[in-house]
Fold this protein.
Amino acid sequence: MNAPAAGAPDGGSDPPDQARLGQLAQEQAALRRVATLVAQATPPEEVFAAVVAEVGQLFRVELAILFRYETGRTATSVAAWGPAAENLPVGIRLPLEGRNLSTLVFETGRPARIDRYADSSSGPIGAAIRGTGIRSAVGTPVIVEGSLWGAIFAGSTLEQPLPPDTEARLASFTELVATAIANTESRAALTRLAEEQAALRRVATLVAQGVPPVEIFSAVSNEASRLFGAAKAAVLRFSHDGPAAVFVGVSQTLDLPVGTRWEFQPGMASAEVYRTRRSARVDAMDWSSASGPVAAAARRLGILSSVASPIVVEGRLWGAMNITSTDQLLPTGTEGRLENFTDLLATAIANAESRSELAASRRRIVAASDQARRRIERDLHDGTQQRLVSLALAARTAEADVAAGRGDPRAYLARIAAGLADAAAELQEFSRGIHPAILSERGLGPALRTLARRSAVPVDLEVTADARYPEPVEVAAYYVASEALANAMKHAQAS
């Protein structure tokens, strides 16, 4: 047996004004009960269930339902009441297609009604409503902080349409639902912010401690996974020989080994990041007809929604932070929250690269110092040491000549003294770890002339070019000449 039409007095015996007052009292009582739940911060799902129950009983309809609109033009039932609700259980998700109340409210953002549902509706939702026997229905949008969140619908199986004031009366309940949602989202946002800040502090501590990047990549992936409700998270490094993305850090929820390489293909949020250098999102990607290892992994993992944000290190695109969900679309704002982690990752990578460059610089300094030491050893052997050997030979020659009454001792001593002065000058230069200053300042010709002048035996020198040569060439030529003179003195008994 059908319930009386909304607004009709029970039994028809009460005067119209009295019936209207009774209806208003019932409506105010229902609104107070819902408002009390909202004020007590009752969980949203309990408020939703209470609202549709109050609407169903107050409006005397066979169906009261609350839909939430989602990205991708879908609507999900979050609360349902009445005998006609069996075909629309809580949790059912239907596409917003065709002509029906759900699509009308979604597209206009305003209240709507259909008085002859059997003749005027289409699409999956329209078919589901017709299957419940509903003949007329009214829908009112739920607006949360200026955005369309969802809608409440009331449907009747009676022949006559719902009364003209149904939309206005239903709006009172949608305002309470909107308040409950806004309050809940505010509390959730505060909790989420606190959790996010705590996660960022933990990662920042690792960065400040100079923890190796590979450990930070895993830590960030796990933090992001927990923060986004056990989603799958990964740090990707872009490879430009392909191009491709290489997994360098994965969360414990992601069944992929570090080092996995995915060539870019449509449907990958990271591929869009690589192309645009901006955060990207891919929702409800159909992987069923795609081929290749990426599609196979996506089907195996059950990826439904994916968001990636770029990691930019000192102006260059290094990689991306990627997060995926398998059971629901990632919430709006995920991109911005993920970028907080990519900033820390960029700092960690830049620090690691700076430390690596510093270590490489230190290695170069050590190598250069060792090379300089070997060069000084060579220079001492080929230059000053040979000069001193030559002077020692000259001293023994002078000693023998003087003993035999030959030669002028003063000339020998003068020559030895000049040689010692030259050796001292060379040692002073070598002590600075450099080759002769005249070679650097004036070139090979003047340096060879000085070398010839300092020689212990007479030297004929002919320089055919005054042009400067590369420093290694000049240094090599100088020491070849120095070694040749020293060997001539030592081994040829040159006169």
Notes: The chain is about 55% helix and 15% strand. The chain has three domains: 10-185, 210-331, 362-491. The CA atoms of residues 113 and 482 lie 107 Å apart.
